[in-house]
Batch of 4 targets.
Target 1
Amino acid sequence: MEIEQRWGEVISRIREASKAARREEGAVRLVAVSKTYDADDIRPVIAAGQRVFGENRVQEAQAKWPALKAGTPDLELHLIGPLQSNKAADAVALFDVIETVDREKIARVLADEMKRQGRTLRVYVQVNTGLEPQKAGIDPRDAARFVAFCRDDLGLVVEGLMCIPPVDENPGPHFALLARLAGECGLSKLSMGMSGDFETAIAFGATSVRVGSAIFGPRS
C-alpha cells in the first residue's frame, strides 16, 4: 500500500474514533511522525494534505525540514523526542511546537532562547504517567506546580500535556490521568496516542495523536 493510502486510512480511523466518542469533527489533529524517514517519503504525505509533523531528534530534523518548510510554508513541526539543552537554540529556530518540556533546566533554556531569537513556540509538558525510571517526563504529582512555573515564572505558552504510556500496560488509565491533570492545570490540549492506541486516546479526550508507522510503514 502506498504512503498516501495509509495516511488516508489513518485520517478515516481518526474520524470514526472521534464520531464514536461523540467528539466534534476536527477536534483531533494528526501529528504525522516522520522520524527516520527521509524527505522523499514525507513529500507524498504533504501533497495529500498533511500539515503537522513530528520529529524525535533535532539533528535529524535539521537535515530535511528546512527545505520541506521552504517549499510548503504552512507546515507545522513538533519536537516529540527528548531535548538536550545544547540543542535548544537549534530546536527553537526550526520547530513550531516542543512537546517534551519535562524539567526546570530545559524550560529555562527554552524561555531564554525564545527571547533571544524573538520566536514564541507553543510547548507541552511531558508527564511520566507510569513513573518509569528510563522514561522522560515530570512526575504526575508535580505536574500542576511545574505547569505553573513554566507559565507564570518563565512566560512559556503552555498549550497542553503529553504522555507515552508504558508499552506493557493498558493505556486507558494513563490517558485518563493525563486528561484529569490537564483539567487541574486549566489546559485543553492533550497529545496522547500513537499508532497502536490512538483510537483509545481519542476516546479519552486526545486533541492530537502522534502516528508514524501506521502511515509510513515499519521502521528499519
Target 2
Amino acid sequence: MDPVEALRRTAFLLERSRAATYRVKAFRTAADAISGMDGEEVAERVAHGSLEAVRGIGPKTAKVVREAVGGATPGYLASLEEEASAPLASGGEALLAALRGDCHMHSDWSDGGSPIAEMGRTAIDLGHAWAVLTDHSPRLTVANGLSTARLLDQLAVVAELNEQWAPFRLLTGIECDILADGSLDQDPEVLERLDVVVVSVHSKLRMDRAAMTERMLAAVRSPHADILGHCTGRLLGGRTRPRSEFDAERVFAACAEAGTAVEINCRPERLDPPRGLLRQAVASGALFSIDTDAHAPGQLDWQVYGCARAQECGVPVERVVNAWSANRLMEWTGRKSGS
C-alpha cells in the first residue's frame, strides 16, 4: 500500500469521526514528509529504523508507513475503516445518493486547514461532480477573510485546477458576511464574477429580533445572494451559542420569492436550521442547499447529517440545489445575478 495514501486516508477518517485536530495534523504532516522522499529512501529508512529521525514523523505515523511499505493495510487504518463502515446518521441515504455536489467548503486561504487542491481532490474521491469553494469575506478577520485582491487571485488558482480535473468542476464562490445593515461584505462587481454566493451572519448574532429580521431580509433579497448559510448561527455541544432570533416566516418567504436557497448546514455542532424552522422553510416553498461547511477534507463526508434531517422534515429532493448538475446550478445563480 502506498504509505502517503495510507497516511492521508487515516487523516481523512479521523476528521470524519471528529477526532482532535492535533491527531489529524500528525498524519497529514507525516504524509507531507513522506511525499518529499523517493521510494528508495523510504524503503531504506524503514529497513534501518530511521523513519522517526525525519521531522514530522512520530511513532504512530512511522508504524503506519512501515506496515504500508511491508505490503499490508496498516492496523490503525484498518480499525478506522471498520469504524467508518457504520453510518454517521440514521436515514437520508436516498437523498444523499441524489446529491451531486457541495455548495459550502473552506480552504487554507481563509480558516480551513487544507489547500484548495486537497479539498477538491477529496470531493472527487467522494464522487462529487462539482463542489463550490466558499472562503470567508474580508471583514471576518478572525477567519482570515479574503480581500478583493486575494479573492481574484483565488479565481485564477481555481481555473488552473479545473483544467486538470475535468469533468469535475470546482466552482468559484464565497461565504459572504451579512453586515449589520443587511449589505454584503464584498464588492458587488466581484460577487458578480462568482458562480455561487453563500450569505451568512457571523457578527452581532444577539441583535434585536426585528432588526435581525430586516438585516436578513435585505441580504436574501440581494441579487447576488444565492444561499442563506446557517441561518440561526447556533452552536451545539461544548462551545454552545444560542440561536439568533428573527421572523422565520418572513425570511423564508423572502427566500422563496427571491429564489435564495436555505442552507441545511451539516456540521454536527450546527445542524442549522433546527427541525422546527426547517419545517417552516419547507412550507414556505423555498429551495434548499445541503452543505457540509467543511473546513477539512474528512468533513466533506458529513452531508449525510443534513440529508437525514432533510428527509425527516420532508424536504423534497427536487428543491435541493445540490441534486442539480453544475450547468443547471450556474443557470440558476446566473439568473439571480442577472449575468
Target 3
Amino acid sequence: MTQSQRPRHVAVVMDGNGRWAKARLLPRLLGHQRGVEAARKVIRGCSQAGVECLTLFAFSSENWKRPEDEVSGLMSLFMTVLDREAEGLIRHNIRLHFIGDRHAFSPNLQAKISQTEAKTAHCTGMRLLIAANYGGRWDIIHAVQAYLKAHPQADPLTLTEQSIAPYLSTAELNVPEPDLFIRTGGECRISNFLLWQLAYAELYFTDKLWPEFNEQDLQAAFVDFAKRQRRFGMTGEQITQGTDHA
C-alpha cells in the first residue's frame, strides 16, 4: 500500500463492548476492559502503518445516560488506563490528546488527563486523540460560541466555514481531517461523532464487536479504503486526469 493509499487520519467508533460481554454472560464493564485491549492493538497497528492521527470515541456526551454503575466503572477504567498506558505511548513515540468537555469529569480524572497529555507532549510520532464527553453537535456549537466571543462585533450572517473551523476541538491540534471512519458492532451510523470533520471521510462498517477487532480487521479496512476513489465534489474523470498530470 502506497503512502497516498494510506489514510492519514483514522477515526473509530468502538462499538460492541457491552454486547460482547452480554453474549458471554459477563458484566458490561468486563467488555469495556476487553475493549481496551482491542484499542491497544489498533493503536499499535495504526502507528506501524504510518497513520498520522488516530481518534478513538471513548465516551460520548450521551453516555452519561447509561446505568450509574457502568458510568462509574468507566471513569475508574479511564484512570487505570491512563496510569498503565502512558509509558507505552512514550515508548512508541505517540502523543496523546483529549478532545471533549472534560469539565464534567472529576477533578482527579481531569488532572490525570492533563498529566498524561504533558508526559507525551514531546512525542513526535502518531497523534492519538481520545474523544471523551464529546459530541459533534457540542463541538460545532462550542466553536460558534468561541468565535462570537472572540469577535463580539461580528455579524452572524457573515459566518463562513473558515470562520468556525479554527475553533473546533481538533483545530488547535493541527491534525488533518479524518480520511477513514471505522465503526464496529454492526451499526451503520456516525452517532454524533466528529460531524464537521467527517464531511469527506470514507465510511467503513463491520459486524465485528469491538473486543474482537484486531490488526487483521484494521488491515482489511485499510485495503477497502485504498480501493475508494475520493472525489471531494469533483468527477471521477477530473480526479483521474489530476493523477495523470501529477
Target 4
Amino acid sequence: MEQDDPGGDATRSPEGPAAPSGVTTSFYRRFVGPLLLQDEGADAERLSQLTLATLAQVSLRRDWPLVRDTLQGLAAELQVRDARLEQTLFGCRFSNPLGLAAGFDKNGVAAGVWDRFGFGFAELGTVTWQAQAGNPRPRLFRLAAERAALNRMGFNNDGAQAVRRTLERQALPPPGRRPAVLGLNIGKSRSASLELAPDDYASSLALLAPLADYAVINVSSPNTPGLRDLQEESQLRRLVERLRRLPACPPLLVKIAPDLEDDAIDAIARLAYEEGLAGVIAVNTSQHRLGLEERRLAGSGLTLAEEAGGLSGRPLRPRALEVLRRLRATAGPALPLIGVGGIDSAEAAWERIAAGASLVQVYTGWIYEGPALVPQILQGLLRQLDHHGLRTIGEAVGCGQPWA
C-alpha cells in the first residue's frame, strides 16, 4: 500500500516487461494480492498499518546481520541499477526516476529501507506541526475493479517533533549521501487558520529541514477544510516567501490538485518560476468522481457521489496527464515536474515522462500490483529508451514519443 541483475536482461512479452520472480513478489501475489481483489474483506488502513509496523522494526534494525541479509535479498529482487536511469535534479542525485508518493509512510518510520524496494526516492508525510488523529474511520476504501481508492485520511500523523525523533532514531545517512533521495511533504495543521498557515508550515519545515533532501508544500489535499484555498496565487506566494526565508531551506516543491482550472494551473507554473521553486508535483487526489459517481462503496454502502474524500488510482490517469501537459506548456522545459496519479504500469510511467515529467511516483498502483511493479516499470522504461534511440532518461523527458 520503492539490482544488481534483474534489470537489464528480462525478456519482453507481448504484454510488456516480464514480471520479476522471487520470494517477495511470490508472497505478495499469493497472499496479499488476493486480499485486494475485492472491496470488502481486510481493512485497507489496517493492512497499511501492519505493513508499516513491520517495516519500522526492519528499518531500525537494518544493520543486524539477519535483517541485513534479508534486505540484500529484497534489493537483489527489486532494484534495477542502470546509469541510463540516473538524473540530478534540484541538487539531488536520483538513481532512477521512480518514487514512492507521500501518504504511505506518513511518519517516516521506514525511511531507511525504501531503496531496497527499488525506489529512487521516497516522499515521507504528509507531516503537520500539530499531531493529528485525522478524520473518523472508515476513511480509506478500495475500489478493486477500478484499481482505485477513496481516502479522507485528514493528515493523520504524529506531528513534526515526533517525526524528527523517528527519523533520528533510524540513523539515516545525511542528505546527499543516501541510497534513495528522501523528500518531506509538509501540510497545514487542521487547527491553524489560513492567515497563520505560513507560520504553521514554517514551524514544521524549520524542524525537519536538516533531514530532508527536498521538501514539498502540500496545499492540495481535499481532506483538510480550506487547505486548497492556499493554491490561490496570492496565498501560495505568501506561503512560499515565508518558507524560503528559513535558514538552510531545502529545495522546495509544491503539490497541486487535479481539479484546478487551466488558468490556476498556469498561475502556479508562473509562480514556481518567479519564486524559484525547485519543481511542481502533479497531482494529488481528486474531489471529482471521474465517471464513477454511482459506484457504491462496500465499506459504507454509499455511492462515490455521496462520500467525501479524494479519488486516486487508475481513473485519475487521464486528468493527471492533462495537468502535467498544461504545466509543461506554461512552465517551459526548465522546471522539473513530478508526475503522480494513476501510474500502475511501465506504459503509464513512460507516458508521463514523455509528456514532461522528470520523475514519477506511485502509491495506489503499487498497492494493487505489489512490489514487482517497481522493477517492471524501470525495465519498461529502459526498453523504451532502447526503442527510441535515447541514451538517458533525461533525454526522454518531454520527448513526446509514444509507448512502443
